Amino acid sequence: MAFRASPTRLLPVSAPNMATTAAPCTPAPWRSVFLSHVSSMPQPTLVLSTLHPVEPGVTRHGFSLVPRARTCIYRGLWGTWPSNGDRNPAPRNAQVFESDLPVITTDIRMEKAAEIVGTAATPSPFSGTESGGGGPVEAVWWAEPQGTQWRVRGTAWVLGPDIDGDGRGARAVREALRERMRRAGDGGKSLEGNEAPGSAAEAAWSWSREVTGHFGNLSPGMRGTFRNPPPGRPVTLPVDPDSGLGIGQTVDDVDDQVARRNFRVVVIVPDEVDQVDLSDMKNPKRWLYVYRGASYKTTQPGGEVIGEWEKVELWP
């Protein structure tokens, strides 16, 4: 990704070619600070913005795409979802992979899933049953204890029950995420409690098991929301009594067919991370991290290449 000078900020000229970048070998330079800040939040909420395609012939002030934003709960980084102790009955993958990819969960019947799939550079028809994505998103955290705002810009991918399958959408998701996953450990060595890369545990690592783990990490009441009547539907319309849908249910079974049919994991693949530190208003700080991939040499004034990322300090 090249940038041209601007009076206000560094502007991307083109998106990074993810197909040609090597899998990351080191954690992102912003990762540890970001995780520290998010873990200190009373509730790790973020605002997720997407682009909403307007129905053909029904424009909004002449626009065919309009912004949408909503508050979501941060669910950890892909490959390393946080333990919920004995409250999560789902089987867990061995800790052989890690990433810098934030995760949220959603109901496939909500609009964000269709927006993520429908605004991709190469959009595919949204069936509501297949994995897919690639649409542009921006996620914003306000870590109030540290007075720091985090903006993560990139693409988002929706993972469903078919994620281990051969469908075009599932294959695209796995390819996009795998390019930004790395083996946990140092130089192929095992970390405490982890399996060494190349082991049977790595070969047995399952995408669908990871999705089920995120479902199990929800409380039974939250799992039950995926049995709600269709979100956004008028309450005056009847609900099929045989559908299993209804308000206020709890779900203990992590393989509950009705809830799992609607449950999805959404993974954000960051291209830019914008950190603004306002803890000292007399001396605010701002850094922009841009994913560059392997073998990049900085061309930006003050730029510093750290692993696959370039870090530039900006005026706030």
UniProtKB/TrEMBL annotation:
InterPro entries reported in the protein's UniProt record: Pyridox_Oxase_Alr4036_FMN-bd, Split_barrel_FMN-bd
Q: Which Pfam families match?
A: Pyridox_oxase_2 (PF12766)
MF (Gene Ontology): FMN binding
Would you say which domain of life the source belongs to?
Eukaryota
Q: Which residues form the Pyridoxamine 5'-phosphate oxidase Alr4036 family FMN-binding domain?
A: 28-159
SUPFAM superfamilies assigned: FMN-binding split barrel
Protein name (Swiss-Prot/TrEMBL):
Pyridoxamine 5'-phosphate oxidase-domain-containing protein
Highest classification ranks of the organism? Eukaryota, Fungi, Dikarya, Ascomycota, Pezizomycotina
